[in-house]
Amino acid sequence: MRLVLVLSIVLAAGSALAQPPQGRGGPPPTAKAVAPVDLTGYWVSVISEDWRWRMVTPLKGDAASVPLNAEGRRALMAWDPAADEASNQQCKAYGAAAIMRVPGRVHITWQDDNTLKVETDAGTQTRLFRFPSTGSGQVVAAPGGPPTWQGYSVANWERAPQGVGLPEAFPVFAARTGTRGRSLEVNTTRLRAGYLRKNGVPYSADATVSEFYDYHKEPNGDEWFTVTTIVRDPKYLREPFITSSDFKRQRDATGWRPTLCTAR
């Protein structure tokens, strides 16, 4: 009987924690005000896998682990870095579908209360993650205009479903081990065609990118986030291309060196 009572209290607490904050007659809370974690600051990418594709430019034709279709393979074999340089398209490998895989540092700040800004020193890129200002969590449509390397990104704090986001004393009930719902979801559209890897592995202007930023803190105080990136492209991919990339928080801007895009 006592166990049943404890479980009822725990599940009720989880349900309450999973509810979005309610306003009291005033304007809806801003994304900054309800952020479950603080992602602002400087972070450095930690490369523990995929060295051959991330730390150096892979050989022409190397698309191992990327589910390219026949058209994607043809586009891959047509890669010509000299042509990219001549047409001022050196940033093809620094678009939103690939930039978080590029070794380097990121600087995250709030541009305003509903827009998170992510700057990369690799390629000197700037991404803007726009949260719905209504607080509804509904994705808003991208405006018109030409596609860009970083596209148009809409973000939401991923709220924990019932049973997630519970007190640390009850980790057994956490459906997403290690995250407890502390994730930023970002969906990006209106992309300019680019490369998933620097050797010309293609994605088209039809591609969309979904990202999940999960934060965690080690017992020694080190802070990390892992971004899971899902690229869908009906033109060049047989199925979604999924990667995960790790970043560790820095105390300051040490090592921050903005550099231009390169095609080789």
Summarize this, please?
With 264 residues, this protein is of the alpha+beta class. It has helices at residues 2-18, 51-54, 70-77, 81-86, and strands at residues 41-46, 105-112, 115-120, 125-130, 152-158, 183-189, 194-195, 202-203, 208-217, 223-232, 241-249.
How many strand segments? 11
Quaternary state of this entry equals: single chain
Helical fraction: 10-25%
Low-confidence stretches: 1-23, 162-181
User: What's the SSE pattern?
Assistant: HEHHHEEEEEEEEEE
Strand order of the largest sheet: 1-2-3-4-5-6-9-10-11
The end-to-end distance, rounded to whole angstroms, is: 67 Å
Number of helices: 4
Structural class: alpha+beta
Number of domains: 1
Mean pLDDT: 85
Main beta sheet strand tally, sense and closure: 9 strands, mixed, barrel
Q: What general form does the structure show?
A: globular
The radius of gyration over CA amounts to 20 Å
User: Strand-residue fraction?
Assistant: 25-35%
